[in-house]
Amino acid sequence: MTFDVKEHWENIYQTKNSNEVSWYQEKPKTSLNLISETNLDKDAKIIDIGGGDSTLVDNLFVKGYRNISILDISSNALKRAKKRLGKKAKFVKWIVSDLRKFEAKDRYDLWHDRAVLHFLKTKKDIKKYMEIVELFLKPNGYLIVSTFSDNGPKKCSGLDTRQYSEKSMKKLFGDFEHIKSFEEKHLTPWGTTQIFVYHMFRKGGKK
C-alpha cells in the first residue's frame, strides 16, 4: 500500500489537540525574533510553510504584518487556525497544498519553515524543495528554516526525519548568503527535549 502523506497529516490534526503534538509552541518567540531582525516592511509578503495551526500568524498580526500566507498539506490544520483567528482569518491567504506541488502567482519577501524540510528524505524531494524556494522567494528575500539538528530526533509523528547542521545547510543553500545558524532546545508538551537548528539566509539579488 502506498503511503499517503496528506492522509497522515489530516489524521494527526483530526485526532490530536494543538497542545498534543510535539512541535507545539505557545508563542514561537525564536521565529518572531528572526523575522523582526529582517526589518522588512509590514506589508512584505510572508509565507509560513507547513504553518498548520501555529500561532505565528496571530503574533505577526500583533506586530503589524498584514500580508501573510500559510501553506499546509492538511486542511484540518488550517481549519483550526481559521477558527482560532475568527474575523482576522479573512486577511490571511490560506493554501492547502503538498509543498512539492505548490504553484502560485505570488513571490515572497520571506519564507518561513519551522519543520517541513526535515521530513523530506529523498534527494528528489529535497531538490524539489530547493527549486520551489528559488522560484517563489524574491531576490534579496529572506529564508528562515528550522530543522532537527544532528542531535535531534530521527523520527517525528511516526515519520522518519533528516538531520541538519550549519555545515550541511550552508552546502544545500550554497547560492544564498548565510546570515546565521544556531541550535535551540525545544521542550515538547510532555516534557521531552528536541534539538532544533535554526538557519537564516538571504537570497542573492541577481536571481
Describe the structure.
The chain is an alpha/beta fold and 207 residues long. The protein has a single domain, classed as Vaccinia Virus protein VP39 (Rossmann fold). 29% of the residues lie in helices and 28% in strands. The protein contains 6 helices and 9 strands, in the order H-H-E-H-E-H-E-E-H-E-E-E-H-E-E. The chain has helices spanning 5-15, 29-37, 56-62, 75-85, 123-136, 166-172, and strands spanning 46-49, 68-72, 92-96, 108-113, 137-148, 155-156, 159-160, 177-187, 193-202. It has a 7-stranded mixed sheet with strand order 3-2-1-4-5-9-8, sandwiched between helices. Strands 6-7 form a two-stranded antiparallel ribbon. Strand 4, helix 5 (123-136) and strand 5 (137-148) form a beta-alpha-beta unit. The chain is globular. The N and C termini lie far apart (41 Å).
What Rg do the Cα atoms give? 16 Å
The CATH level-2 architecture is identified as 3-Layer(aba) Sandwich
CATH topology: the name is Rossmann fold
Order of helices and strands: HHEHEHEEHEEEHEE
CATH class: Alpha Beta
Low-confidence runs = none
How is the main sheet built? Answer: 7 strands, mixed
Number of DSSP helical runs = 6
Mean pLDDT: 89
Specify the overall morphology.
globular
